[in-house]
TrEMBL record:
First and last residue of the signal peptide: none
Flavoprotein as UniProt keyword: no
Catalytic activity of the protein: guanosine(46) in tRNA + S-adenosyl-L-methionine = N(7)-methylguanosine(46) in tRNA + S-adenosyl-L-homocysteine
Binding-site residues, substrate: 143, 175, 208-211
Lineage, top ranks: Bacteria, Pseudomonadati, Pseudomonadota, Alphaproteobacteria, Rhodobacterales
Gene Ontology MF term list: tRNA (guanine(46)-N7)-methyltransferase activity
Protein name: tRNA (guanine-N(7)-)-methyltransferase
Pathway, per record: tRNA modification; N(7)-methylguanine-tRNA biosynthesis
Family stated for the protein in its record: Belongs to the class I-like SAM-binding methyltransferase superfamily. TrmB family.
EC number of the protein: 2.1.1.33
Role this protein plays: Catalyzes the formation of N(7)-methylguanine at position 46 (m7G46) in tRNA.
Keywords: Methyltransferase, S-adenosyl-L-methionine, Transferase, tRNA processing
UniProt keyword annotation of tRNA processing present: yes
């Protein structure tokens, strides 16, 4: 198998479909998904893996949310930062439909999405284009033999680091102590300095569905902030 990440088949172990979609959610997907999706990210659309042309967004700072789930944090950040362009990547179609409903309700025009694996997006993001990235409650993969599937591994972190500007902020929120351990071990060697960590959220934080579930089940959140070197 080729070692070129653009040519290597990627396994995705998460879910892409859940409960049957409601009629309104099907309508959001049919009517809004194509317009809001970045073009030239998938291998079918861009087999040469040419970098995306971001010039239509001008000088707007570009942020990325990895695995936005139901989209509540992404929409909150978009509303709070109207001069910023934010991309969300998420392969779970039910989450994508929820996000589209929230974008409609909020009337936002500064959000775009990749309805798929963020690694495909990394292939085609230009160098040093992102000034912030969010990783909220990444899949925990609790079994030791699955820890290499976690986002905080070089396979994900090195392409993310390449796409981030020097000085750009990378935020991680998790409720899993062993995920904190692996984040502290693996993120700095990928090109980031730890700036802060603890149980106090960022001042502009919006609690996500997974955080609410963690709190109900008695798992306290932990927040980590890194800066790209
Ligand atoms: C535990 S959920 C958290 C969702 C949301 N961030 C929250 O806090 O409620 C993790 C999410 O990451 C998404 N995910 C996992 N691997 C991904 C990948 N390679 N690219 C994009 N999203 C991914 C999953 O589909 C899932 O929705």
């Amino acid at each position: 198998m080729s070692s070129d990440p653009a040519l290597t088949h990627r396994n995705f172990y998460g879910r892409t479909h859940g409960k049957t979609l409601r009629a309104a959610q099907k309508a959001y997907l049919a009517e809004d998904l194509d317009r809001l999706s970045l073009k030239g990210v998938t291998r079918d659309e861009n087999p040469e893996r040419r970098p995306l042309d971001l010039t239509p967004w001008g000088d707007a700072p570009l942020w990325l949310e990895i695995g936005f789930g139901g989209g509540e944090h992404l929409v909150h950040m978009g509303a709070l930062n109207p001069q910023t362009q934010i991309i969300g990547a998420e392969p779970f179609v039910n989450g994508i439909a929820m996000l589209l409903g929230k974008i409609r309700a909020a009337g936002l025009s500064n959000l775009a999405l990749h309805p798929g694996d963020v690694r495909d997006l990394f292939d085609v993001l230009p160098d040093a284009c992102l000034s912030k990235a969010f990783l909220n409650y990444p899949d925990p993969w609790p079994k030791a033999r699955h820890h290499r599937r976690r986002f905080v591994t070089p396979e994900h972190l090195l392409p993310l680091a390449r796409a981030m500007k020097p000085g750009a902020e990378f935020r991680v929120a998790t409720d899993i102590p062993d995920y904190v351990r692996q984040t502290l071990e693996e993120v700095p060697p990928a090109g980031f300095d730890l700036i802060d960590q603890g149980s106090t959220p960022w001042s502009d934080w919006l609690s996500t569905r997974y955080e609410q579930k963690a709190l109900r089940e008695g798992r306290p959140p932990h927040y980590l902030t890194f800066r790209r070197r």
